[in-house]
Design goal:
heterodimer, A: Amidase signature (AS) enzymes, eleven-stranded mixed sheet, globular, B: 481 residues, alpha+beta, Arc Repressor Mutant, subunit A, 3 domains, three-stranded antiparallel sheet, 15 strands
């Protein structure tokens, strides 16, 4: 069995069927990470107890106990999720020395499902970025071309899959942070419906937008992984009571009669040629599968990026107020005059540029005198966008769109132009604003060999339609099982 | 002596903000205990310590207590209210924001009625909103320590309208709020321990003006008496300011009880922009109508209504009724005692004298009084039946207080019952007359005043137990013989 190339479902079936031991799988990926991750910098830390966790799964299998739906699968988790006893950094110096006394509910649920925690992956600092370049621990590189970014903010979680350093991973998505790196790295990334997955223990960026979700080799793996982490959590008041369906078992890739919506406002005019080609081929594939292509409209979509950056930054400015360098995190060496100066010194030195930019932006948007024009106005646009999506979903089952305007860009190309970087999020931010589930599925490759994904969006809590359509698209496109060069 | 601002042609405008710590077992947004007196930072968890990724979840009991209080204050209860983040940096505020209600708090406009200066007053309640408490900083020279046990303790902030005009009225309003909170059993109302905190807003203006003067806030006053004194001082200070042609500065002041004056804590220029916005971690608080009605129907009778009933149905004087209804437990005690004896005024007299004196002297609460209401009532009934005299009753009461005994067994054990047997009392009268021949002679020769002397001697010989009426009757008869 080629462990590197195996899917999550194959690995867990093999563990459950006693064809392979969980410790062999864990050891295999640990060795690969040790050998080649210095090229990618996708992991920030390896879980020191991963072998013990794997041994426990093997013991359970040996004694005939049910090892769970993720039996023995090593999972890489974005270093934005708290892991008890294991330093959690959010890729920021402001969390230096922070060892959480608790694990995120997602991490608890992964373990309860039989998964083993492989390690913590690189990200943009506090998940703020689209390139993984704002990490305080150095950028992560795209395995398909090391001069290019893996996307972000869940860059490490995407890159480690592309480099076959883990069979599956967990990312978080506030404005596209799972879907965009999935697209850049040629893997599947799912942003669940807001309220589907507990945010407890996920270091908050923008609380009304954040959702953790699976990143996997294919849609079926994604369904299995999402089932394991979804559902009501008493520790997160914003989780939903909506039952979690057995998505994996119910995947139905028959697309006949399914209505695929194409957005009037997010057409191929906004994207580069290779992305346009991939997008058109995906639409054509759905048509050939018997789906009906319909035009839908979400007029406020053109305000999505502006709205998103006001709301996300406002919430971030508040969520990041707790990082003051007192109990953990960077503390300035210079002597400070008073309490305010002490806070200012710690925070000015400890946070990176992008994080500070967003704290400033959000503080401004919430300030008295500006609050109504920015935060309130953005909230109104957001409500309208939600309503417009509801109307659009009366006419279609799934919306097909590009994930980004172009494939992965070069490291350093956009870091000094935040507006250009933010525009990158034009196709992804609206689903966070509206709370909708979305999936990024590999759709093809650019001429330079970099992967390009397509995005599917469904109505609230209809992840099943996403998995159905994504699975159908995967079979229809039958992309060559290509791995990045040298992997 | 209250300062009479009116004398100078000024009137004061006073409003109060009262923070009541709600008596729930766990904190407002996490499962930690609210128990007072735990070791430093013992009652904390990732949520109230503001650790990364921790999330607040609203304690339903807190909402129930807020609704209960809102109903008792005649407030509109909002079907949907919201939590917002109030943002500022301080070491004892671990998240960098306090979760509070800003727009649309759970309790909207209402009012409270109470008696002040012998008259019924009505003060409007602008709002009552829920929020979490911050931690506590203690400063030790060049370092400070933070205790987060208090972080996340539920508070209900009750804001009055600017309706009060005198310091005494404001203090009585605060007492009335405390009384209601304690009746509802939602707050223990302890100002000294800080479970009830009072901020006062005071301004002065020329009588007859409708515009408000510049408002000064006095923070954290920890007794009702100090509320009154602080306001008096402040009215005086502000009136002097205006009379001297100075402007009253808008600021926050603190009251120093030792010096009986207020002093500047911070000026208005330091005012924060709190950048309120709805807390995205919490859903809107939805309160179902049925639930509100259920709570309404479970409300206890409140002090003012109870006092009115004591006057109307039990014919108590208003003074007694007001004193007895200040504490729910005391009023309950009175009701049980009066039921047991059927003599409300006697029960009230005993409670307001012997019971309260003994409670004060021993530092005991009414709930733990060694003399139960039922036994007190039984004892009063024994007086009314003539089994013991009012004077002997004091001895019985002391014995009951000391040994938690039953009045009847104490009377039996100590032989304290009145002697009502005419033959027995007659023998004592005969003995007294025989033993005092000269007084007897004087009396018979017209010295009527000596009658009292013979009564005293009989009572003394009977150890106070002879029925006084019987003594009088027999003495008269025998002296005439």
């Amino acid at each position: 069995m080629d462990l590197s190339q195996s899917t999550l479902v194959e690995l867990r079936d093999a563990v459950r069927g006693k064809q392979v031991k969980a410790v062999e799988i864990a050891d295999h990926f640990l060795q690969r990470i040790a050998r080649i991750d210095r090229e990618f910098n996708s992991f920030l830390a390896i879980n020191p107890t991963v072998m013990d966790e794997a041994a426990k799964v093997d013991a359970a299998v040996a004694s005939g106990l049910d090892p769970g739906p993720l039996a023995g699968v090593p999972i890489a988790v974005k270093d934005l999720l708290c892991t008890k006893g294991l330093a959690t950094t959010a890729a920021s110096n402001m969390l230096k020395g922070f060892v959480p006394p608790y694990s995120a509910t997602v991490v608890e649920r992964l373990r309860a499902a039989g998964a083993v925690l492989l390690g913590k992956t690189n990200l943009d600092e506090f998940a703020m970025g689209s390139s993984n370049e704002t990490s305080a621990f150095g950028p992560c590189r795209n395995p398909w071309n090391r001069d290019h970014v893996p996307g972000g903010s869940s860059g490490g979680s995407a890159a480690c899959l592309a480099a076959r350093l883990a069979p599956a991973s967990i990312g978080t998505d506030t404005g596209g942070s799972i879907r965009q790196p999935a697209s850049f790295c040629g893997v599947v990334g799912i942003k669940p419906t807001y309220g589907r997955v507990s945010r407890y223990g996920v270091i908050a960026f923008a609380s009304s937008l954040d959702q953790a979700g699976p990143m996997t080799q294919n849609a079926r793996d994604g369904a299995v992984l999402l089932e394991a982490i979804s559902g009501r959590d008493d520790l997160d008041a914003t989780t939903s009571d909506e039952p979690v369906p057995p998505w994996f078992r119910k995947i139905d890739s028959d697309m006949s009669g399914v209505r695929i919506g194409i957005l009037k406002e997010a057409g191929i005019g906004d994207v580069d040629e290779s992305t346009a080609v991939v997008f058109s081929r995906a639409a054509e594939a759905f048509r050939k599968l018997g789906a009906r292509i319909v035009n839908v409209s979400v007029p406020t979509l053109r305000y999505a990026v502006a709205t998103y950056y006001l709301i996300a930054a406002s919430e971030a400015s508040s969520n990041l107020a707790r990082y003051d360098g007192v109990r953990y995190g960077h503390r300035a060496a210079r002597p400070t005059a008073d309490l305010d100066d002490f806070y200012a010194a710690n925070r000015s030195e400890g946070f990176g540029l992008e994080v500070k930019r967003r704290i400033m932006l959000g503080t401004y948007a919430l300030s008295s005198g500006y609050h109504d024009a920015y935060y309130i106005k953005a909230s109104q646009v957001r409500r309208r966008m939600r309503d417009e999506y509801a109307s659009a979903f009366a006419a279609c089952d799934v919306i097909l769109s590009p994930v980004t305007a172009s494939p992965a860009f070069k490291i350093g190309a956009r870091i000094s132009d935040p507006l250009e970087m933010y525009r990158n999020d034009m196709f992804t931010t609206s689903s966070n604003l509206a709370g909708l589930p979305g999936i990024s599925v590999p759709g093809g490759f650019a001429e330079n060999g970099l992967p390009i994904g397509v995005q599917l969006t469904a109505k609230h809590f209809d992840e099943q339609s996403l998995f159905n359509a994504a699975a159908a698209l995967e079979s229809a496109l039958a992309l060559p099982k290509k791995a990045p060069h040298g992997v | 002596m209250a300062y009479e601002a009116e004398n100078e042609g000024f009137e004061a405008v006073i409003g109060l903000e009262i923070h009541a710590q709600l008596l729930t077992r766990s904190k407002i947004f996490c499962r930690d205990s609210t128990h007072f007196g735990a070791g430093d930072n013992e009652n904390i968890c990732p949520v109230c310590a503001g650790l990364p990724g921790a999330l607040p979840v609203l304690n339903e009991r807190v909402v129930e207590y807020a609704v209960k209080t809102g109903l008792a204050l005649n407030c509109e209860i909002r079907r949907q209210s919201f939590f917002a983040r109030k943002q500022y940096f301080y070491p004892d505020l671990p998240k960098g924001y306090q979760i509070s209600q800003h727009d649309l708090p759970i309790c909207g406009p209402g009012y409270v009625e109470f008696v002040s200066g012998g008259a019924k007053r009505r003060v409007s309640v602008t709002r009552a909103h829920l929020e979490e408490d911050a931690g506590k900083s203690t400063h030790h020279g060049d370092y400070s320590l933070i205790n987060l046990n208090r972080s996340g303790i539920p508070l209900l902030e009750i804001v009055s309208g600017p309706d009060m005009r005198t310091a005494a009225e404001a203090a009585d309003y605060a007492r009335a709020i405390r009384g209601i909170l304690r009746y509802l059993d939602v707050c223990d109302g302890n100002l000294e321990e800080g479970s009830l905190r009072c901020d006062v807003n005071v301004s002065v203006r020329h009588c007859g003006e409708s515009a408000l003067g510049t408002k000064v806030e006095i923070k954290n006053i920890n007794s009702f008496r100090f509320i009154e004194k602080a306001i008096e001082y402040e009215i005086h200070r502000q009136t002097d300011c205006v009379l001297n042609g100075e402007r009253v500065a808008q600021e926050t002041r603190l009251y120093d009880p030792d010096k009986n004056r207020t002093f500047t804590m911070r000026a208005k220029e330091d005012a924060h922009d709190y950048r309120y916005f709805p807390d995205p971690d919490l859903l809107p608080v939805t309160v179902e109508k049925d639930w509100v009605e259920e709570i309404r129907s479970s409300l206890p009778e409140l002090p003012l209504a109870r006092a009115a009933r004591f006057v109307a149905e039990l014919q108590l004087p208003e003074y007694d009724a007001t004193i007895l209804t200040q504490e729910r437990a005391l009023a309950d005690y009175f009701e049980r005692a009066q039921e047991a004896c059927g003599n409300p005024k006697a029960a009230s007299n005993w409670i307001m004298t012997e019971v309260m004196r003994n409670l004060n002297e021993s530092g005991t609460s009414i709930a733990r009084a060694p003399v139960t209401a039922e036994r007190l009532g039984k004892m009063i009934a024994l007086i009314d039946k003539g089994v013991i005299s009012g004077k002997i009753a004091k001895t019985v009461f002391s014995a009951m207080w000391a040994d938690r005994g039953d009045p009847e067994s104490i009377i039996a054990e100590k032989g304290l019952a009145q002697v009502t047997d005419a033959a027995a009392v007659g023998r004592i009268v005969d003995d007294v007359l025989a033993a005092n021949p000269s007084q007897l002679e004087s009396y018979r020769s017209g010295k009527d005043k000596l009658f009292g002397f013979f009564v005293g001697q009989v009572m003394k010989l009977s150890k106070g137990q002879a029925n006084p009426e019987l003594v009088n009757e027999l003495l008269r008869k025998k002296l005439r013989e």
